[in-house]
Design goal:
Largest sheet: 8 strands, antiparallel
Radius of gyration: 18 Å
Structural class: mainly beta
Number of helices: 0
Helix content: under 10%
Order of helices and strands: EEEEEEEEEEEEEEEEEEEEE
Shape: globular
CATH architecture: Sandwich
Number of domains: 1
CATH topology: Jelly Rolls
Strand content: 35-45%
CATH class: Mainly Beta
Number of strands: 21
């Protein structure tokens, strides 16, 4: 989840616009981009259905692992939120990451005090779970509103910052468009823009099939994007977050709700035959 994913204004990153075949006879809009393929998975190695009344702290933390305190943000992007544990909740069989327009004091990249206009929530398996190769699936529902920036992604466990795999991210003034990106250690990140059914009104399943020779993205069981070079071979961990963008023209405005939630109903990781 990086600043360069703002492909519309700045990036020279190669990208593909997914003008997919869509069907909506009397039900929801369906993606038909590419052939649905059986997942590469064997045994379940991580899962959470969020059925209790609180976050399982044996599986999840609520800040990036390079922060020492109880709050954090992504200083690599011009983001407007400060993440706090209180913005993470489990209720009704789902994880809720809540962005709230309420100022909070954090600090900048030089650790100088800084005021953030939003507080929000994130979770990560850093320090709890990491894996190499397998199948990852999130069942999630995004918020709607200008400036809201949810993401589901994987980050290298060695702390290097790359590689990074973005299963999905979206600027939620446009809830019919998803950004799928792979950030290799070097070179331009391949990126795909997928047109989908409203990600805020319905639940969608976002999946990644990570093989030793390829990365394959699925949305609701349909294969939509793949990369077959510079595939990562080191352990990675999971992150889910609801950022608030400070990137023009995606900043919040008067239409942005004061409170918004990124909801996640389930997370699954299966090993594959290439697992290490």
């Amino acid at each position: 989840m990086r600043f360069l994913t703002d492909v519309f204004l700045r990036s020279k990153t190669p990208l593909v616009l997914a003008f997919c075949l869509m069907a909506s006879v009397s039900g929801p809009l369906l993606i038909a981009c590419g052939q649905a393929m059986p997942p590469t998975k064997s045994s379940l190695i991580f899962g959470d259905d969020f059925l209790g009344g609180q976050l399982d702290t044996n599986k999840w933390g609520t800040c990036y692992p390079w922060f020492d305190g109880t709050g954090c943000t992504n200083h690599g992007n011009p983001e407007l939120e400060w993440y706090l544990p209180g913005q993470v909740s489990v209720q009704g069989g789902a994880l809720h990451l809540t962005a709230l327009r309420s100022g909070v004091r954090g600090f900048d990249s030089a650790k100088r005090p800084k005021d953030f206009p939003y507080r929000s929530g994130m979770v990560t398996t850093a320090g709890h779970f990491q894996f190499t190769y397998g199948r990852v699936e999130f069942r999630a529902r995004a918020p709607r509103g200008r400036g809201l920036w949810p993401a589901l992604w994987l980050l290298s466990a060695d702390g290097a910052g790359k590689p990074e795999i973005d299963l999905m991210e979206a600027y939620c003034e446009d809830v019919w468009q998803l950004i799928l990106t792979y950030h290799p250690k070097q070179g331009d990140p391949p990126q795909y823009i997928a047109l989908v059914n409203d990600i805020s009104s319905t639940w969608h399943t976002y999946a990644l099939d990570w093989r030793p020779d390829s990365l394959i993205w699925y949305i609701d069981g349909h294969r939509v994007f793949s990369v077959d070079y510079d595939v990562p071979h080191q352990p990675m961990y999971l992150i889910a977050n609801l950022a608030v963008s400070g990137i023009p023209p995606h900043q919040p405005d008067a239409s942005t709700p004061a409170t918004a939630q990124f909801d996640i109903a389930s997370v699954r990781v299966w090993s594959s035959s290439g697992s290490a």
